[in-house]
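Minutes, project check-in

Agenda point 3 was the complex the collaborators sent over. CS summarized: two entities, 832 residues total, and the question is how they sit relative to each other. Sequences were read into the notes so everyone works from the same version.
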Amino acid sequence: MTNLPENTPYAVEMQDIVIRFPGVLANDHVNFTLRKGEIHALLGENGAGKSTLMNVLSGMYQPESGTIRINGEPVSFRSPKGAIASGIGMVHQHFMLVPTLTVTENILLGLNEPKFIMKLATYDKKIQKLQETFGLKVDPTAKIWQLSVGEQQRVEILKTLYRGAEILILDEPTAVLAPQEIDELMETMRTLVSQGKSIIFISHKLNEVQAVADRLTVLRKGKATAEGIDPQGLTRTQLAELMVGRKVIFQVEKVEREPGEVVLEVENLSTTNNRGLPAVRNVSFQIQEGEIFGIAGIAGNGQSELVEAVTGLRPIEGSVRINGTEVGNCSPQKSIRCGLAHIPEDRTGMGTAPNLSITKNIIMKNYAQDPISNGWRIDYLAAHDHAAELKEVYDIQAPTVETMARKLSGGNLQKLILAREISGDPKLIVAMQPTRGLDVGAIEGIQRLLLEQRQKGAAILLISEELEELLMLSDRIAVIFDGELVGEMAASQADLNQIGMMMTGALRSDG
Amino acid sequence: MNLEVILRAGLSTGTILIFAAIGEIFAERSGVMNLGVEGMMLIGAMAAFKVSYVTQNAWLGLLAGILAGGILSLAHGLVVISLQADQTVSGLSLTFLGTGLALVIGEGLTGLNTPTIPTVTLPLLSKIPFIGLIFFTDFNLLVYVGYLLIPLSWYFIFKTRPGMHLRAVGEKPSAADSLGISVYGTRYLYTFIGGCLAGLAGATISIAISPGWYSNLTTSGQGWIAIALVIFARWNPYTAALGGYFFGMLRRFTLDLQGPAMILGLRNPFFYDHNLVFFLQMVPFALTIVALVWGSGAARRNRRGTPAALGIPYVRGERGL
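CS then shared the predicted structure for the full assembly.
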């Protein structure tokens, strides 16, 4: 944090920005300013309009009304090109990188130089130099798909710097990073402002904002609820209120519970990823009744493959037993019969059929059972009643149960999946990133449901990148790195720093 | 049956497939799958033949063939790029549209003679022993154009700036768009180039390599083979060229196999039983399927495969690619 004097000139002034999407007012007369050499944090729930506002600034959307000034000059961007020319560089939350191109190629994309022939080697050197200036290390000749998420982010930042960006927009840059990587990113941000760049930092974590930001703006439902306030001295509860508009309880009650019989037994499990490379290496663990076993790790260290192996979706070596029945290399149906509930990471791809109704999505598991099916015919009346009941119980916000799943918001979609998976009283729940991308209110609801199931005696395998969530919900925690479980500990004795180091492979303790 | 004849026939007829396949590689690298290659080839063949006949100038015919394929491809472009319709359906309809148009406009052309693109022997190069005879002697000019097109298109796609933009648009249009590359513009351009090359492939048949207009037998399904080649070649012009020439040789080989009564001292079954010939004619196509299955598995493992955005319409700001 650099305490900038009050009279520092503005790099960006956005006034009365209005943007309307079909049925929503995404930005309702929003004001936003950024001083030169400042880090300005922008907070808000999902759908509050942060990304929309930044897309206006980066030229992706044209506002209905409102003015934008860059360094005092009024501008109006017709396309991202105009914004880039004005020195604005956006690092999107979903990286805008082409996976099959190299780092250098990605950085050069869209530029007028080189004219025709690529001469990549020359440009590799240029980019190496740029990296050294700002302390952003990554191999220029590597292809993007070979890089870690943190490295990809560095490429995104380099890309904007190479284009001469003076104003950087970082859209939830920390959401995908491990704790150590977050520290590195903050160091980078400080280096950047010390060299005269200005940064807009989108986040929803107060501690991060307080660590780097000079000022803070909060959006809620398209309106600013705080404009350019000082983040110091703000409490987490106050901030949550600004974001959500009501008080949020952060700590979900967790009752002590003695674990019972072993439900899931995984022994020497190994499997490969889609490219045929080893993804999970010789993993063993057990989960008991009424126990939540959390697995921490940075995305891409074998979590997806582990989940697919346990749920019967991926061929394995080793063994997976649910209540003593071997389910590895069998059909997912067998696992389901053994009491498996799967809350997949990909809600729209694997979790639901987006173009089918809520009813059809809800009966996907018990469509063959009484009363929904009598023999070979599906009784849609019964299915409808069943869905309507679950919609009520799980509080799925939708006009009717005939609404298509793709029209639901992320939180409601997740509730739909939970309703389907949990309503059958599962013995084992495998949940991957169950709260990712949801807003504070929805997260609370989902966490409550998981704890309820634990209370009822389900064994739960929880995989998450949110350390806080893991620590709060889990009874035991293990860390996965490069396909191996590198450490296991009781959640009550877990140390955030230590877990963070294990996640990056800097530390391992087998015990 | 002799090796020299088969090799030369492969290079000659393979040229047709190579033009069409490289055209489709360009289109698909930008994210636009165009299953209308057969239709574009046929209309190219017809236009080339008709213009060549009317003007008595093969070069004008060639130009007409190229443009006919290109213009037809723009119809596909409009439907799938601007209107975001399903590429498979539109491509299939394009085949019907192209075939239908070509048959109607080409009515009465059968049996006529036109000027053709000349056959050339390259000086110097043709003097190289054996190689000169196989590769550089007495071929249609367009065969040599094919030789050049292969490395040039490879270099363009992988080593130049526009080529990099092309790949970016086909892999991740949102990234390209965010950097100011026009996704629609790029897709229209390469769809058009793809159409032009398909038209050229058609013209190569009707006024160069096997001159004449035989209605829809002129192309006889080679457009589909070209599409299969693209997938087999993992969107790489060199591999497509190998496949195209090999396929050409194979067809010639199966044709030659029907000729002699005795092979290596044995009775040739294909000479005696005409029904077996149908199976023989099927062999190149069956091998295509085998190659496809084998090729796509290897490609997936090495991430050298389908452009990620192939077949997916791009709408700015919408989730997805």
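Noted in discussion: Chain A has a mean pLDDT of 87.
Follow-up: revisit at the next meeting once the mutant set is ready.
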